[in-house]
Amino acid sequence: QAKRAGKNGIEFFAPNLDVAAHSQMHIEVRLRRALQENLMHLHYQPQVDVQTGELLGFEALLRWTDAHLGTVPPGRFIPVAEETGLIVPLGRWVLNEACRQVAEWGLTVPVAVNVSALEVAREDFVETVTGTLARHGLSGGNLKLELTERLAVRDLHRAARHLSQLRALGIQLSLDDFGTGQSSVSTLLQLPMDELKLDRSLIMGVADSPADQRVVGALLGLARGLNLNVIVEGVETEEQYRVLRDMNCGAVQGYLTGRPGPPDVWAERIRPHQKPGLR
Length: 279
Ligand code: C2E
Ligand code: MG
Ligand code: MG
Ligand code: MG
What we know:
EAL domain-containing protein, 10 strands, binds ligand C2E, binds magnesium ion, globular, eight-stranded mixed barrel, 279 residues
């Protein structure tokens, strides 16, 4: 560390930065291996109609428990995967596994898969998605793609073109984390979309704070004006649920209506939404 001291003897490199870089590299090595050895899993979280309580679909969420690192949350390893390009094979794995599961379930409601902007902008993205659907005998209506905006403008045009092509096949497009720095109104102007997912941070106070209710109400109005569906993320309490239902918000996803879980735990819940032969 001392060797890195600057001209005036001030250390510019805090030791914990080195630790961060090191663990980042460690995550990359372990992640690459986990992918090769098929050690990743998907959990599924229900998306629910706020008026009827009916199941509208599931979001697929990556889960990874590593022998050395323990359980690593996606918030930790997805950024590493994006920086290293591992997101491309990882994204393909997620898409394939989610589609395989939907086909096995005979699910009549769609599965939502998170995709990185980096994946969407790739030349082979449309082919990857259509090829995966075909492999499992699925159609566009079985799939929803959730996006956050982390794209250079240059790539945005290509992403928009790819998304339009997929949307024409009946695949729904959802703008994730709306209301955070990651997803903005300007994205809406540039990308084709069917749905907004309001970030959890926006609705945390909605049960208690009239000001928060007004913000959410205004965003629901925005969505309505743009003809977009809304899913509110991170609904944890009955009070939040009631307030959102009374505001006519459409759909919710959160611990209250179901925590993300492995496929088995949804056996009962999916029964009314399976193709007849598979019930
Ligand atoms: P996201 O797409 O916004 O997913 C929702 C996150 O909120 C998930 O965190 C979910 O477990 C969590 N959540 C759901 N309901 C509640 C609630 O009521 N309370 C609280 N506190 N949290 C709730 P998770 O699984 O840790 O994923 C974090 C992020 O990692 C995701 O945010 C998504 O951006 C990314 N991610 C996860 N899986 C994938 C993937 O397969 N591909 C890509 N590219 N990104 C993924
Ligand atoms: Mg998502
Ligand atoms: Mg989100
Ligand atoms: Mg997200």
